[in-house]
Amino acid sequence: MGSKYPRSVRGCLPPWALMLQGALVLIFFFFTSYDTSSKDQKKLLGTYQVVQDLSVMAALGLGFLTSSLRRHGWSSVAFNLFLLAVGVQWAVLLDGFLNQPFHGKVSIKLSSLPPAAMSATSVLISAGAVLGKASLVQLLVMALVEVTAFSTLRMLDRRVLNMDNHVSMMHIHVFAAYFGLTVAWFLSKPLPEGVEEKEKMATSPSLFAMLGTLFLWIFWPSFNSALLDIPNERKLAVLNTYYALAVSTVIATSASAWTHPQGKINLTHIHNAVLAGGVAVGASCHLIPYPPLAMGLGLVAGLISVSGAVCLPVCLHRVLRIHDTSGVHYTFGLPGLLGGITYIVLMVLQASWASSPWVGFQVLNDAGALSLAVAMGLASGLLAGLVLNLKIWRAPHVAKFFDDQAFWEVRVLTHNMLDFKCMNLTGFLL
Amino acid sequence: MRFKFPLMAIGLEVAMIVLFSLFVQYETDHNTTSHINNTMAADMDGFLKLYPLFQDVHIMIFVGIGFLMTFLKKYGFSSVGINLLIAALGLQWGTIAQGMLHSHGKKFQIGIKNMINADFSTATVLISFGAVLGKTSPIQMLIMTIIEISFFAGNEYLVGEIFKASDIGASMTIHTFGAYFGLAVAGVLYRSGLRRGHDNEESVYHSDLFAMIGTLFLWMCWPSFNSAIAETGDKQYMAIVNTYFSLAACVVTTYAFSSLVQHRGKLDMVHIQNATLAGGVAVGTCADMTIHPYGSMVIGSIAGIVSVFGYKFLTPLIATKLRIHDTCGIHNLHGLPGVMGGLAGIVAVAMGASNTSTMAMQAAALGSSIGTAVVGGLTTGLILRLPIWGQPLDEYCYDDSVYWEVPRWREHDHHFHDPGDHSELEPEV
């Protein structure tokens, strides 16, 4: 057993965070400038709307989605905000360096914020898998590695495989899920007795998680259409996402009741599986011409997600000894894979209707992009996992997993303590 | 409470309706003959373009600030509920007060900018409400709303029309003003009976999580707040980008310094809830100037540091030495960063980031905001001290049950779903 007093984390977070922020300010000083081109007001505010929607999803949606652990709510929400702030700054820079024609200075357009916010979202998704097992400094390092890897992935997709912006961005779910799972595999130590108790959910934290789910659900059409420029594709994307989400909600609720011996609904399934439709339809949402197709996709995604939630922790994760705290694998990973495969099939159908001679090449190319996303996720997750296991980050002791107390100054907490205080006071008065 | 409050509220609302009928017109039914249809269509277009920004500001006022104040364990109803009451009354009175000043007492048309400005004027009252949270009655808050918005409109007229100072995100006219007004009121209403603190003046685990909802909404919508009334095009773009990066940088330094000043390097929820927003306040004045992204990041970082230090060291000092008890710590979230924003504006103008204003005028604007706020706050405080407004007794401060019908089993609700577990989190040995 470790000592009763966990190590102080004072020497750890402040220097790293301040150094990083200082470095970011310096890089911004040398390499960024405003966008000086003239702006159309309508377009400007349109882009700003998208930025707003994405930050609602990232800060509020993903923050609260993972807050269902009974003693880990503060960390879920607040660490999420921190990672978003770091991730966005780093992603803006990297996108500028890697994905735009680079002339000495990165010009910061308003339209460079949505992709940056989405790249930062990948960190927030992966953080769900290691939730409660990593300190803030470890998460910070993970964020830097992951944003770098994801930007590289997008650059490769664009330069080598000629994928468009939207599709390469929609590989985010697969990438982030497998990245998170790999890191979680490195951080999963045998958990001591009693930790399961902390993992249990209480009613009101589940409601908080529901808040996150609802915000994600409401704004998902914006996420899927954020990077599309052609109005018609955008309209299709919004509609298809909307239908897919609706269907996956219905399916998730009924499938959850179906898997329970007494037909009761499990709120954890609802939290995650209602979003599966939005994830699955992501890559192909601008291509699907008929709503029923999107709805079918939502149906399959909902089923996969719920059955994943039921089976995966028991079979796969136990065998591999991965502890996936908030179910990233079945919320984002599997539906994301489904979406990637659907995209390949749709492209093949389109190409064969047009009887283009490039069908084989097209399949190879798209399948390559999808497997590149998975491979990149696994490889960079491996790297991040190795780095995170270094002693210098002062990981929390395993007894302090899933517990806010390791990181937070918690003032008055218990009724016992209150009673104790009152007794003291009465004693004092007497 | 039974009769005073309803009478007061109904009376004020009737007065508002009468004032609206006397002074307010739609934009469209004016001068239909002299304007051709073309310009009318353009006006409506502008209205709808700014409507999303107005919506964001609305979210900040009603959801953001309201939930930010729900951190007290027994005062959640009042925080959100009275916030709604103040904001609803305040935006009506703000429309009238600002419209009359700018039109010099004649009738005026109401457009999207009036609505945004009315929301801004309620923000001052809600900021001040943070300082006296838990220690006042709803009637007192109604009175404070009316008086504070009058002072605010006067000061805003002085800064905008006479000094012609630049204050786009209103660091000075809203944040600094609201904070010092609230502090002055809190100073006059000081309760020496609560010198040693109050049992209810603390948070519980879930109330802090609720407050985090408010923080997140404010954090996300702040770029809209700072850019809502900016000139369209370049300036609006810069206001958005600067605020965005200032906020991001502020979050990182806040976490770092919170961990640095706390016992054993832990984070403090109060700092995270509030200081992460200081970056948005501090960049307000110079948001639409060419300060470059790195400049806004520097401003945001410093604001986070100042705010954390304020919570850690200054608030206890002010409470004991100056006898001003600031419940939400608005001095650290709005006061200091607001002043910092004013100073940053002076520096930015001196460095030539803007050509619309001069250093002297910026300084005068900052001075007049603080001066008006303190004078107005002291006056309001003296009026609110009269013992006829149904103030709560010392022992019933920070308690919803004085003014609200409260469910009986509120504080035991987590026993309800988990009878075995009496402690949310054991104290560390």
CATH homologous superfamily identity of chain A? Ammonium transporter AmtB like domains
CATH topology of chain B: Ammonium transporter fold
Q: What CATH architecture of chain B do you see?
A: Orthogonal Bundle
Shape of chain B: globular
Largest sheet of chain B: 2 strands, parallel
The neighbouring-strand order within the major sheet of chain B is 1-2
Number of strands of chain B: 3
Q: Figure out the total of helices of chain B.
A: 14
Into which percent range does the helicity of residues of chain A fall? over 70%
Indicate the percent of residues in helices of chain B: 55-70%
Terminal Cα span of chain A? 43 Å
CATH class of chain A: Mainly Alpha
Binned strand content of chain A? under 5%
Uncertain segments of chain B of ≥5 residues (pLDDT<50)?
30-36, 411-429
The CATH superfamily of chain B is identified as Ammonium transporter AmtB like domains
Produce the secondary structure layout.
The complex is a heterodimer of chains A (430) and B (429).
Chain A: H1 13-31, E1 32-34, H2 41-65, H3 73-99, E2 106-108, H4 113-129, H5 136-159, H6 165-170, H7 172-187, H8 195-199, H9 203-225, H10 231-259, H11 267-273, H12 276-281, H13 291-311, H14 316-320, H15 328-353, H16 359-388, E3 408-409, H17 415-429
Parallel strand pairs in A: 1-2
Helix pairs in contact in A: 1-3, 2-3, 2-4, 2-9, 3-4, 3-5, 4-5, 4-7, 5-16, 7-15, 7-16, 9-10, 9-11, 10-13, 13-15, 15-16
Chain B: H1 4-23, E1 24-26, H2 37-68, H3 76-102, E2 108-110, H4 112-132, H5 138-162, H6 171-188, H7 205-227, H8 234-261, E3 267-268, H9 269-275, H10 278-282, H11 292-322, H12 330-350, H13 359-385, H14 413-417
Parallel strand pairs in B: 1-2
Helix pairs in contact in B: 1-3, 2-3, 2-4, 2-7, 3-4, 3-5, 4-5, 4-6, 5-6, 5-13, 6-12, 6-13, 7-8, 7-9, 8-11, 9-11, 11-12, 12-13
